[in-house]
Amino acid sequence: MKGKTIVITSGKGGVGKTTATANIGTGLAMRGHKVVVIDSDIGLRNLDVIMGLENRIVYDLVNLLEGHCKPHQAMIRDKHDYELYLIPAAQTRDKNSIDAEQLRGLCATLEEDFDYVLIDCPAGIEQGFKNAVGSASEAIIVTTPEVSAIRDADRVIGLLEAAELHRPRLVINRINPDMVKRGDMMDQKDVVSLLAVDVLGLVPADERTITAANKGVPVVHDKKAPSGAAFLRIAARVDGDDVPMVNVVSKSGFFGKFKGLVGMNGSAYSHA
Amino acid sequence: MASKSAVVQVSGRGTNVDFIIDDSAPFDQVAQNLRQYLVENRGLWSRGNISVNAGRRVHSQEELDRIKQVIESESGLTVSRFWCSPDHFDQAGPAGELPPLLESPPNRPSPRRSKTETMPRPWSILRRAKDSKPGNSSKGQPVQALFVKTTFRSGESIRYPGDVVVLSDVNPGAEIMAGGDIVVFGRLRGIAHAGVDGDPKAAIIALDLDAPRLQIGPYTGLTPAAGSRSKSKTAGPRIAYVRRRSIYVSPYTGRFARYTRGILYEG
């Protein structure tokens, strides 16, 4: 088996890298793939919490790279019945405790056994970013439709191109359909015209993403959540399926306007 | 595939091969180690063209010729061109002393770049025109225009003694400083400083001029506030130029003549 290593990065913190990693990883596993997700945010470990695997951690990424354990010992299997594994970050160390070469070696080894190796990249463009990016052959950029996040995404795309990761794909997270409709939030077109990269998916802002993360069950498990459905479509696109983009904001046709008039705002959008 | 040699390191991934050469090592040592590496690993290379990234090192023509000769004689590879890091321009000084870059064959894929810690941008666009046409440098020295084909992204910065032509967008947070004019065939939203050596005759032209701040020579102009801006927000290419010690912006009519009746960008 020859898998792919994909890094999920953003530049800016707090835009949803870890959430995206957990959900895309779970989505790919739900499609029957063997997936390992690596939390490379050493010192600020999060991915385990979002996946609900916090209390199963024995060994972490640093232990593994330092040779204190075998890869299978550091891999925690997901609670659900999928071929999904997590290699958690070390919480008590920092980004300099691993080196890019070691991580690259680990990913190359994992690619032998897994279909997808997803790396959750730390925020920023310092050593942690370089470690994560140096190991991957593909990149997914997560941004929100806010100027600051987009500015950072732009910077990161430049750095990725310099690191030979061409054609990164973009996930626009936390799109608020009502705000876009009012013209208070950038829409997909504005973001893409600036960043000039392919869009992998659009994720609507959804409270259930947060509830799910707090429960430690990624939102893709919730088929009714708009964000979960969006992440599932993103996973399908990562997997090579040609899933059509659905605009997060509904076209304001007659029915949409009617709904707006009557005040049925809640479900007035279809989502990507 | 990584050599442990301190001076010359080679790493390969996929179909790409990077030669990473220590910027500070003396040239003779580099040449020797490079030759040694190629000899040791003879047979590893198939025939083909490669690009060599010279990084931050300033090479003379003889040195580049020697690197080319070493690589070509010790392997079946053909060196088709050299690249340099953008910082080079600061060191390279005025015209004529620019790093001698070999002519690049058309339509080659993006060049190999070294993964140094600063991860310099590809200068895929930098090439030397054969006929030297005088540029717009303030000192009157002939400098070729620099063509940038990729999107200029946030955090990327360039300083070049001649004219700069960008064939795509200049995004917010990017910075161009040119000794001559700046022409952007896209949307200019970054910082542009034309005539950086003090030449007030330099101009900035963009298909979509949407920069928060423009600088020409010693003058600075800020985009007028939203109210008066709607007037200036007419679509189409526009030119920024200096008149009466201020920066004005007019629709660009396709000729590089004196413009009048522009909108004032107060400094």
Question: Features of this protein?
Answer:
heterodimer; A: 272 residues; 41% helix; B: alpha/beta; 5-stranded mixed beta sheet
Q: Give the fraction of residues assigned to helices of chain A.
A: 40-55%
Q: How many DSSP helices of chain A?
A: 12
In the sheet with the most strands of chain B, the strands line up as 5-7-9-11-14-15-16
User: How many beta strands in the DSSP annotation of chain A?
Assistant: 8
Shape of chain B: elongated
Distance between the termini of chain B: 55 Å
Order of helices and strands of chain B: EEHEHEHEEEEEEEEEHEEE
Q: Give me the Rg of chain A, rounded.
A: 18 Å
Measured by residues with Cβ under 8 Å of the partner chain's Cβ, the largest interface is: A-B, 19 and 24 residues
- Whole-angstrom Rg of chain B: 21 Å
Sheet having the most strands of chain B: 7 strands, mixed
Low-confidence stretches of chain A: 252-272
Structural class of chain A: alpha/beta
For the biggest β-sheet of chain A, the strand order reads: 3-4-2-5-1-6-7-8
Determine the number of helices of chain B (DSSP H or I, runs of at least 4 residues). Answer: 4
The run of helices and strands of chain A is EHEHHHEEHEHEHEHHEHHH
